[in-house]
Amino acid sequence: MIYMLDTADLNAITQAVDLYPIAGVTTNPSIIAKENRPFKAILLDIREVIGRERMLHAQVMGKDARTMLKEAQALRELDPQIIVKVPVTTQGLKAMKLIHAQGIRITATAILTPQQALMAAVAGAEFLAPYVNRLDNICGDGTAVAADMVQLIENYQLDAKVLAASFKNIQQVHKVALAGVQSVTIAPDLMEQLLVHP
Ligand code: G3P
After folding, report:
1. What value does the mean pLDDT take over residues 17-30?
2. Do 88 and 127 meet the contact criterion of CB atoms below 8 Å apart?
3. How far apart are the CA of 158 and the centre of ligand 1, in A?
4. How much distance in Å is there from the Cα of 166 to the middle of ligand 1?
């Protein structure tokens, strides 16, 4: 299991990388907005805390592929090891092909169906992030979607990993782990809860 931390809170990241086997940090626009500081400064500070060996994921916000590509290039200028998160929209898929062609690592994000994940992997995404709780919240089955994604990766021998995201309770984390996802990204408070027993 590859554990990542889903936050831009520097104190929480500092504490978590000290305590837990954290392989990286994932951010998204709403996580960044909570910090009330400039985007680039936040990313540089996170990199300083986590070091060069851990992964750092940052999301593009453009609506069209060309804008997303430019954002990805700017992110790489800022941090050569950055993994660029791209939402799985039609333009996002186009952007993934362009970004992948430039050798920039990609996390396909906001995934709600296994077929979105499959096409994103074929387009060059290295990590595939299903939003487990958001699916559960609309009477979907986040775990089942994550499990299907694991199966598709195996069926097609894809060079991609499921990065399950959007957790709100430990049972969701446990179920996707049983389903064989390769990685999870978890908010710091939930990371602590993973170890709690009354
Ligand atoms: O990293 C993205 C994902 O974790 C989003 O979670 O809480 O906005 O559903 P949430």
Report:
1. 97
2. no
3. 24
4. 4
Tens digit of pLDDT for each residue in 101-149? 999 999 999 999 999 999 999 999 999 999 999 999 999 999 999 999 9
Say what the pLDDT of residue 112 is.
98
CA torsion sign for 68, 69, 74, 75 is positive
Q: Which architecture does CATH list for 2-193?
A: Alpha-Beta Barrel (3.20)
What six digits make up the tokens of 41?
A: 């400064």
CA of 98 to the centre of ligand 1 (A): 25
CB 125 within 8 A of CB 107: yes
Contacts of 91 (CB under 8 A, 6+ apart): 63, 64, 65, 68
Is residue 85 part of the annotated active site? The answer reads yes
- Residue spans per domain, the chain: 2-193
pLDDT score of 198: 85
Residue with CA at minimum distance from ligand 1 atom 3 = 166
Select from 3, 5, 6 the residue to mutate for testing ligand 1; criterion: most ligand atoms less than 8 Å from CB.
Answer: 6
On whether the CB atoms of residues 24 and 53 are closer than 8 A, the answer is no
Q: What are the pLDDT digits (tens) for 42-83?
A: 999 999 999 999 999 999 999 999 999 999 999 999 999 999
Determine the average pLDDT of the residues in 161-180: 98
Is the CB of 143 within 6 Å of ligand 1? no
- Cβ 185 under 6 angstroms from ligand 1: yes
